[in-house]
Design brief:
mainly beta, five-stranded mixed β-sheet, four-stranded antiparallel β-sheet, about 35% strand
Length: about 675
């Protein structure tokens, strides 16, 4: 479909929507956990020599500011590993396995002081008898007030430890990785996320990284059941709790220290979802090293009414989704293995919110798992072929697997992504709790003061958008029409959405698109196969930059992603092949230097064999999809719709030669 153009007059509309959200998140307040000696919530440590040795390192009762980065602090417990909120508005903070040190990191830090750590691969435990604990607290104007501590314990009432369970986990050592390995402990847990089970009388579900496991706990801290991969159950037969091998065995292949870290419990308490922290597979094999597959398992929750085991779990399904491309992390060099899903929370019966992070940057996604393939019914059920075959280059859809679908709702990378204006705590965000649909609390894990980390910080965000997904954000107000003509160039009037020409079907410029964030206009040159970029104000005759799609091409349409996300500012172009072949989709990435547009770089090019005469192109509201109308030419060259899924980097073309609505819906989800 062609547009009429009057000379070089282009008209663009820019509507002011002051009442709509601006999509910029902001941190409203930050709160610190008070200094708290471990013995306050672990009273069994009162006379423990390892704990007392740590206390001796304090200066005037607080952390030594000049302490060795390899040392933890006895008064800065890490209640930021998990976070949730109760109906009575109490927040729950969770420690992980307890203070620990990486043996290899200690040797690298000081091979003389930590000579006993050199040559060892494992974890040092400064206080091996530490018991993971939860803290119930409120945030008040004068700070965090802890209402109750609940130490995790076994069925005999003894404190659980944070020591690893089997040789499949990190080898445990004492303080500073000294001496011989400590015995493995079948009662050891490394909890990372926690939620109360609604309508259960106060029961909790937790996930942890060893084995990995799902724990069921009474409100007094008694862990009465532990669910692990099938082949792990026999290794924990001496545990002082009931152990069930009900988790599919494929999950035993999780990387060390990368077990379950995200947990979802449904609003009605009928099911839970446990989510792996990172992709699985041996990193020494390139295909596994580059994969971004995150697996999750779903269990039905059944309340029994029995005092000794008030709830049980029943396996339902497993599914997967894909971690973000590493190119979408901007604060430091990132590889797929750096991606971590560190917390999750129920949103509705088909979706949950999940926290994804890498070094210095955090993202929150709404993840819809309603249509996700049940992997337990596929050839990928109990092996890592899915991870190997995807290898970071193929999407799950390419392999015949429908992933859970992700929509980003917050990104802390402010400068390019419109994230937060004043957030500095991105490094170790490991827990969060939502408050309504537009606010959330987020907790920063401090690793018990390792690397001189301060106390745990709780940040309160106002999101500027809805957790449910795409939000229409406010746009800049329309500028006044210019009163000067630019000879031979372009004249823009920001009033009506009309594009006209003196002569029918002879215009070079088909359509234009505006990048609202940079105030840049892009024109599609149908005759010359070129995209020209102009600064909207002041207007000049000469384009800032141009991009040619190649000989014998015509660019029939362009659109710009104006959603605040990974592809913000990217240009999508519908490119026609004038020799009669199929057209293609072109995705361009603008390059800015000191706020000035310096060039357009080809980011993706997709040329399927069945999209002829591509015409109108559009980004979806949240820029997760690009669609092109493939005009076609009569019965011999059928029309259709090309769709690029920006999240999975896959392309589908639905043609109209044999319309199958069911197949179309499946392909486009």
């Amino acid at each position: 479909m062609k547009f009429l153009l009057v000379s070089t007059l282009l008209v663009l509309i820019a509507i002011a929507r002051s009442a709509t959200p601006n999509c910029r998140a902001s941190v409203k307040s930050v709160h610190s956990f008070p200094d708290t000696p471990y013995v306050t919530f672990n009273p069994h440590l009162t006379n423990d020599p390892d704990y007392l040795a740590l206390v001796d390192q304090l200066v005037d009762g607080t952390c030594d500011p000049n302490r060795d980065p390899g040392q933890v602090c006895a008064v800065t417990p890490a209640f930021g590993s998990g976070l949730s909120i109760l109906k009575n508005k109490l927040l729950i903070g969770l420690t992980d396995r307890g203070p620990n040190q990486d043996c290899e990191a200690l040797c690298e830090l000081d091979p003389v002081k930590y000579s006993e750590a050199c040559g060892k691969s494992g974890k040092g435990f400064p206080v091996p008898k530490f018991a993971p604990t939860i803290a119930k607290f409120k945030i008040r104007p004068d700070g965090i007030k802890v209402k109750e501590y609940i130490m995790l314990k076994d069925l005999k009432g003894s404190p659980l430890s944070g020591i690893s369970n089997t040789e499949l986990d990190d080898t445990p050592y004492g303080p500073n990785c000294s001496g011989k390995p400590l015995p493995y402990d079948p009662n050891g847990v490394d909890p990372e996320d926690i939620h109360q089970i609604p309508k259960s009388g106060g029961l909790f579900a937790l996930v942890e990284e060893y084995s990995p496991s799902i724990l069921l706990m009474k409100k007094d801290g008694t862990v009465f059941a532990r669910y692990v991969p099938k082949s792990i159950a026999s290794m924990l037969k001496k545990a002082d709790m009931k152990v069930y091998g009900e988790i599919p065995d494929v999950f035993k292949n999780r990387r060390k220290n990368r077990g379950f870290e995200g947990l979802v419990v449904s609003k009605d308490g009928s099911y839970l979802i446990a989510i792996l922290q990172s992709p699985m597979g041996d990193r020494n094999i390139p295909e596994y090293d580059q994969n971004r597959v995150i697996r999750a398992v779903v269990f039905e929750i059944k309340l029994t009414g029995k005092p000794d085991e008030p709830a049980k779990l029943k396996f339902k399904k497993t599914f997967a989704f894909e971690g973000s491309p590493v190119s979408t992390y901007f604060t430091s060099a990132v590889v797929p293995a750096d991606l971590k899903y560190s917390a999750a929370q129920y949103y509705d019966d088909h979706s949950f919110i999940a926290l994804e992070r890498a070094s210095g940057q955090v993202k929150w996604f709404n993840i819809n798992w309603e249509m996700a393939t049940d992997l337990s019914e596929t050839k990928y059920a109990n092996n890592l072929k899915l991870e190997f075959e995807s290898a970071g280059t193929k999407s799950l859809e390419d392999l015949g697997v429908m992933p859970a679908m992700k929509t980003k709702v917050l990104d802390t990378y402010a400068s390019a992504m419109g994230g937060t204006d004043n957030f500095e705590g991105s490094a170790k965000q490991e827990g969060f709790a939502t408050k309504g649909s537009k606010f959330l609390y987020s907790s920063q894990d401090n690793d018990f003061g390792l690397e001189n980390n301060p106390e745990v910080m709780i940040s309160f965000f106002e999101l500027g958008r809805n957790l449910g997904g795409p939000t229409v954000c406010s746009r800049p107000e329309a500028p006044k029409p210019p009163n000067k003509k630019t000879e031979g160039g372009l004249k823009f009037v920001f009033k009506d959405q009309i594009v006209l020409s003196k002569k029918f079907d002879e215009a070079k410029v088909e359509i234009i698109a505006l990048d609202e964030n940079s105030n840049t206009l892009y024109s599609a040159n149908a005759a010359d196969g070129r995209i020209d970029a102009y600064r909207r104000k002041p207007l000049k005759k000469k384009p800032l930059v141009s991009f040619s799609a190649g000989d014998d091409t015509g660019i029939n349409s362009v659109d710009v992603c104006n959603y605040i996300g990974d592809t913000s500012g990217f240009i999508a172009a519908a490119v026609e092949d004038k020799t009669g072949g199929p057209g293609f989709l072109l995705i361009l990435k603008p390059k800015f230097e000191n706020g000035k547009l310096e060039g357009l770089k080809k980011y993706r090019k997709f040329k399927p064999d069945n999209c002829f005469l591509p015409d109108a192109v559009h980004w979806s509201p949240d820029c997760s999809y690009v669609s092109i109308a493939c005009e076609g030419e009569g019965a011999d060259v059928p029309g259709g719709v090309l769709v690029w899924n920006a999240l999975t980097d896959s392309v589908k073309v639905a043609t109209f030669d044999a319309f199958d609505e069911k197949k179309l819906r499946s392909e486009l989800k």
